[in-house]
Task: structure prediction
Amino acid sequence: MTALPIPSPAATPATAPQPAVAPRIGARAVCEALVREGVTTIFGYPGGTVLPIYDVLREFPLRHILVRHEQGGTHAADGWSRATGGVGVVMATSGPGAINLVTGLATAMMDSVPLVAITGNVPRALLGKDAFQETDIVGIALPVTKYATVVMDPDEVPFAVAEAFEIARSGRPGPVLLDFPKDVLQLDTAVPHPEPHELRLPGLLRPVRGDVPEADELAELIARAERPLILSGHGVQIAEATDLLRQVAERAEIPVAHTLLGIGNMDETHRLSAGYAGMHGWMHVNKAIQQCDLLIGIGCRYDDRITGKTSTFAPNATIVHVDVDRSEIGKNVHTELGIVADAGDLLAALLRRLPQSEPRTAWLDQINEWRKVSEARSWHGSGAWREGRLSADYVIDRIGEATDHEATLVSDVGQNQMWAARYFGFRHPYRHLSSGGLGTMGYSVPAAMGAALGAPERETWAVVGDGGFQMTMQELATLVQDQIPVRIAVLNNHRLGMIRQWQEIIYDENYHSAELIGPDLVRLCEAYGIPAWRATKPSEVDEVIARARATPGPSLIDFHLDEAQNVYPMMLPGKGLSEMVEGGDR
Amino acid sequence: MTLPATARTLVPAGEPDAVARRHVVSALVVDRPGTLNRVSGLLRARSFNIESLTVGTTDEPGRSRMTIAIRGDDGHLRQVLAQLERVIDVLEVHDLTTVPHVELELALVELAAPADAETQHALRGVFDAAGGYPISTDEDAWRVRLTATPDRIDAAIEALRGLGLRRLVRAGAVAMTTGPRPSSETTPSTTQNGATPA
Result:
């Protein structure tokens, strides 16, 4: 990375006058600040009010990926962040450009993903005049960001950018939007970039770090429990605490279930990995939740897709909730012990307190017995593929095997997401990316684009239904232009599969708007210059996966699936975990 | 109820069948454009039912204080406090309802000038009970300011409806602790910006 002429101000108290640096325009100050934050890649789309930044972008070691729609830009920045652990950056112009970011910002907000979104706005003198491409993006973004503000003075630029990054990544991470009126980017400022201790963020919640005394009480609960279970969420990976989680599980002999975003917290082949819980989770995991006498939620939200009807959730358990965000505790379920702490700090504190436990043979045997039944009853266990029917579970299983379960897999939303969660066999953290909270269709392809650029050492697969694919398929051109090696597996059932499933089960087979016409995906890819193949039979699957893996740039496989495959088990809306529908599997 | 100063606190569960009651929440906030929007937007989005919300400057430059009167049970209130605490521009949040505090509200009323001594006498009684103070009187109307607790203002207004009430403007409640200040109010909360004050 090129060294930049950025002065490093001495440790000056924030109250002392700032030593001035050589004046530069606001746009350059923004780029300098991004470089100081370690940013290497920006996803963006130019427009009138951000052109001052584009005008100077070449001067900085910042790679700009020109997306085809600003929504793709936010998802790409989100994928980049989830794959790397860093703060993703997206840039857009005022008005429609800024508004197009909103879906991606809300996606990142729900899943605690740190992003910084930079938008231009009309010059200050035109603000509030309904000028061309003017919109109150800060007002629009407030409920879907951790913070959003307009930077009204060029002298505020260095602090505003540094503070945005600090807000985005501290405590419970989230997206931050900074709106720059065009003239703020064009005018000079001599204010230097702040050092971390100079940031003015008196209201920012920062978790207390170090030992967690409340772990005493949790250790006592664990010592008394006969059937303990950990429910681990995204917070474990955000805290980079997956090793600690495994050590605690092994020390206390506690099986570990995971939420959708907790996939990768434990190697799924580990003897203490219980598996994926919730609405379409494994039956044996949900049974374990309902039967356990101590449920320890770590870095999860106990959201409705996990709990179902909360009044019947984990009826036999003392419920513990550990989260870095105090507002999560007691929000959704009745909690006997709530601990506000970083997941890693709590797990480390537990490890210091817990003696090596005897094997909990009866409890683990019970879960494994349930597991045998639930796996045998699953689509994969039932083995429809053996009869020549191309089913989604088989496709996901083969991608997992072919990539040795090492790939980054970015799923979309709906049936494809549940199949990916159930059948890939994840072994490592930061490999499974998905819009868990917001459930944003169209997330997969652009997020995979960001993940592939952020973590190029791993291969990246986008798993997407034909519905979600058509929502953001404009990014195929971005994949081609920057030769981003994303392998796209379209699970094509010519349906909005999850809609069809709900209509079949809940709406008496009234299939309205579930059938979906799409383009011939192989010919579409031909038009883009992307190698693509179609598979219609199980026997073709390994071959096309191998071809995609042998392609250095982007590639796509159009898997034509059995059209009536449902995801089972299923917890119906308003029902509890003990009322799962197992369905006539095949 | 005040959220304890340390970030790591055992949070006892609220009673599921707890009774809803009125709470007065006091929030110290950064005085900048958008703060009111952030707070009111949050309360709306979380379906918290606001009775009144007032904002004013404080003795500290750049800091405002919001007084929010809200109804809910204890679990509900804990959510309000925890959600408010997350707002970057909110520095401190306290529920004053459980500590000694004074709560007052200002109301401006205009009444038809009393036609007889009996009405006049009744009005005086209402004013005495609700901190009434005359603003202006003419042949046609009396304008009076009332300063009292919100429930006394409520009672006064109810009484004034039968005594020629024409116009009413209420300011919303403001409140302040009266006992020793809670420790988290006098020392910087450790949940907020780990840096020690200069």
